[in-house]
């Protein structure tokens, strides 16, 4: 679809809203007979402009607010609390707490549901469209172009939540192509697509894995089951280490046969899920995917990314390869910068990304050039953190599934759940 066609779709949706406003305005209807006839003729000649924006385009370019003009976005999957928390579903006190949370603009769920719906609609198109032979840059930009259009990117008010991960095979996370990367997707690859959407800093973080032939189907099944287990057992007052134990038990009950050799699926023990804060993808609490004994509890009102990684390798990842992911260190001490280029780049980062993670392609996109030395200076000073690609042993395969959950006072809401996973 050309840029003109994309613009036409969005313009048509906006014109439809204008028509609706005019219809509801008595002064606009008070026209003479000749004017009414002309108006009728004009509308007849513009039937396409009258169509409601009721469906997403392909590729996705219609803003979600156009599809939900009343601002009411779909709830995610609702799961009732169990055990000691089962009373919450019917508790009058907790229902009142939820009503207050919904009315509080700081705690409202509307922004995160809007982000969740964007995620569902973009990934639906991506899952149908990604094919072997595509470059990793094409795939990442397919995700990001759809996200920016559907969330109606607006500076730090709405946009992508972090760089699109398109990690392949033994690379489990933190890979997105830099400029000039010619890597191409092969039919035998296992591809993790991990992307985020934010509205007013409320980030939805969700990921899935694609494969194009059946060798590693069992690996994907194991990781999906482990993620769903983590979601099921997560809840208010649940200890993080206990969640990790449940995830590990399910994950490591699976195995994969490859060319006559059987490999146990291992939970990648140094990767984990995490709480999410406003404009901060890692909010301070980690949700392990192995039993690490962490006694920290989940709390009411928090929200989390429950993500699990499985591997046919050693179940441990290390930094390898050229870095693409970066993020502003919110807690960095004041450090005097020696070069003007580093000072200038920091201003660009603060203005465009704040504490949201970014990648080198995002700097390219906003017109920055020759910034690598300045970026490395910021990393060396501890002002910006770098996040290199994370790999298990060469020849192994890794998979990932992830959802964002809200721990509401009365129920648990899987905000990013869709019919796909």
UniProtKB/TrEMBL annotation:
The keyword tRNA processing does not apply. Residues 112-315 form the Peptidase M24 domain. It catalyses: Release of N-terminal amino acids, preferentially methionine, from peptides and arylamides. Its cofactor is Fe(2+); Co(2+); Zn(2+); Mn(2+). Substrate binds at residues 174, 282. Residues 38-53 have a biased composition (Basic residues). A divalent metal cation 1 binds at residues 194, 205, 402. It comes from the Eukaryota. Binds 2 divalent metal cations per subunit. Has a high-affinity and a low affinity metal-binding site. The true nature of the physiological cofactor is under debate. The enzyme is active with cobalt, zinc, manganese or divalent iron ions. Most likely, methionine aminopeptidases function as mononuclear Fe(2+)-metalloproteases under physiological conditions, and the catalytically relevant metal-binding site has been assigned to the histidine-containing high-affinity site. It is an enzyme of class 3 (hydrolase). A divalent metal cation 2 binds at residues 205, 274, 307, 402. One of its GO terms (biological process) is proteolysis. Keywords: Aminopeptidase, Cytoplasm, Hydrolase, Metal-binding, Protease. Residues 1-93 are annotated as: Disordered. It is found in: Cytoplasm. Residues 12-23 have a biased composition (Acidic residues). Belongs to the peptidase M24A family. Methionine aminopeptidase eukaryotic type 2 subfamily. PANTHER family: METHIONINE AMINOPEPTIDASE 2. Cotranslationally removes the N-terminal methionine from nascent proteins. The N-terminal methionine is often cleaved when the second residue in the primary sequence is small and uncharged (Met-Ala-, Cys, Gly, Pro, Ser, Thr, or Val). This is Methionine aminopeptidase 2.
């Amino acid at each position: 679809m050309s840029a003109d066609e994309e613009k036409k779709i969005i313009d048509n949706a906006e014109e439809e809203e204008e028509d609706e406003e005019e219809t509801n305005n008595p002064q606009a209807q008070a026209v003479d007979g000749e004017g009414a006839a002309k108006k009728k003729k004009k509308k007849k000649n513009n039937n396409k402009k009258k169509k409601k924006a009721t469906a997403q385009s392909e590729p996705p370019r219609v803003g979600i607010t156009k599809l939900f003009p009343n601002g009411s976005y779909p709830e995610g999957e609702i799961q009732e609390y169990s055990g000691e928390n089962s009373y919450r579903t019917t508790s009058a006190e907790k229902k009142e707490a939820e009503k207050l949370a919904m009315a509080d603009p700081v705690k409202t769920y509307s922004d995160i549901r809007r982000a969740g719906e964007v995620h569902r609609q973009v990934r639906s198109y991506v899952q149908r469209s990604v094919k072997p032979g595509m470059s990793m840059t094409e795939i990442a930009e397919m995700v990001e172009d759809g996200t920016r259009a559907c969330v109606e990117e607006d500076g730090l008010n709405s946009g992508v939540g972090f760089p699109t991960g398109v990690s392949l095979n033994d690379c489990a996370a933190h890979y997105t192509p830099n400029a000039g990367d010619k890597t191409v997707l092969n039919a035998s690859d296992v591809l993790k697509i991990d992307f985020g959407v934010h509205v007013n800093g409320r980030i939805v973080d969700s990921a899935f894995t694609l494969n194009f032939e059946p060798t590693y189907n069992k690996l994907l099944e194991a990781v999906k089951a482990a993620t769903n287990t983590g979601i099921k057992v997560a809840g208010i007052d649940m200890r993080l280490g206990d969640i990790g134990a449940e995830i590990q038990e399910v994950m490591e009950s699976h195995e994969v046969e490859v060319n006559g050799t059987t490999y146990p699926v291992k939970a990648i023990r140094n990767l984990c899920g995490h709480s999410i804060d406003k404009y901060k993808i890692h909010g301070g609490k980690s949700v392990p995917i192995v039993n690490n004994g962490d006694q920290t509890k989940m709390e009411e009102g928090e929200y989390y990314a429950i993500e699990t990684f499985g591997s046919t390798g050693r179940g441990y990842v290390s930094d390898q390869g050229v870095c693409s992911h970066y993020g502003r260190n919110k807690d960095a001490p004041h450090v005097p910068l020696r070069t003007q280029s580093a000072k200038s780049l920091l201003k660009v980062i603060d203005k465009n990304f704040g504490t949201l993670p970014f990648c080198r392609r995002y700097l390219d996109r906003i017109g920055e050039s020759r910034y690598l030395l300045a970026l490395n200076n910021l990393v060396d000073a501890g002002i910006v953190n770098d996040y290199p690609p994370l790999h298990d042993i060469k020849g192994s395969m890794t998979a990932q599934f992830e959802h964002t959950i809200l721990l509401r006072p009365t129920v648990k809401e899987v905000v990013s759940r869709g019919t796909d996973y």
